[in-house]
Amino acid sequence: MGKNLPKEVKPENKVDVSILKRRKSIEEYHVKSVDNAKKRMESFNQHKPWKGGLTTVGTKRQRLRSPREFFVNSLRREHIERGMNMRLKHIDEADLKTPTAGEPVFLMLMRNPIELPRAGGELLSKYRLSKMYDGVLVAGSDALARDVHVLGEYVAVLSAREPEVLEIVRQKARYQSSTNDAQPLNNNVEVEKHLGQLGVICVDDIMEIIKMGTQSPLFGDVTGFLLPINLAPPKSETRKRKESKYLIKSEASAHSMASHLSAKYKLN
To answer: Looking at the whole model, is its pTM more than 0.85?
Structure first.
């Protein structure tokens, strides 16, 4: 072995054998990581937390989650939770991008909320956001800036004073009727029936109050009256018969509209 060594290499420059024994090879690290993954998979198989848990993937067909899918989703959720915790610990007030206090904004959910941990779900429920491409009208504030900072790319903050955003609100806004049904905001008689005691008698009054933001004392009442706005097109009777095709088309159109709005009017 010594004959093959270059002349400039001396025996005293060799690494001590005891140090080499303490080092682990790449194969040993790989075996250890595989063993840890197998142990975690065994614990999942033992408790079977996915049994009975139905989920919707792409369409409204429900199926049981496989152990591998549950395992991968849990790891992804842990990664997202670590990122949220890091953003919670390192909130720099100077870096928070927030609209002017009291300015009306359109808060929109851009990703699937099922991936978020419990803390993220609580923040979304605070703003009544439950479905992807849902949007709500809120007033800009420091608390909103912190929540948006924690949620990261899951939400987008748009200016509600833009004509295009206001037109979408006018077209897609719904309210909860006395029979607990979601009705479109296109009937001035119903608006006067629910908000007439506040002096709001038509849809144009609602749009003016939204543009004013918290400068109007009725902003909270009007935004609470409106249900979360989903960017997907409304269902018709013919589309209900072809549920799977409708879902694909509606998701694609909602995604394109949400991407267009966030690229043009995003504030965060």
So the answer is: no
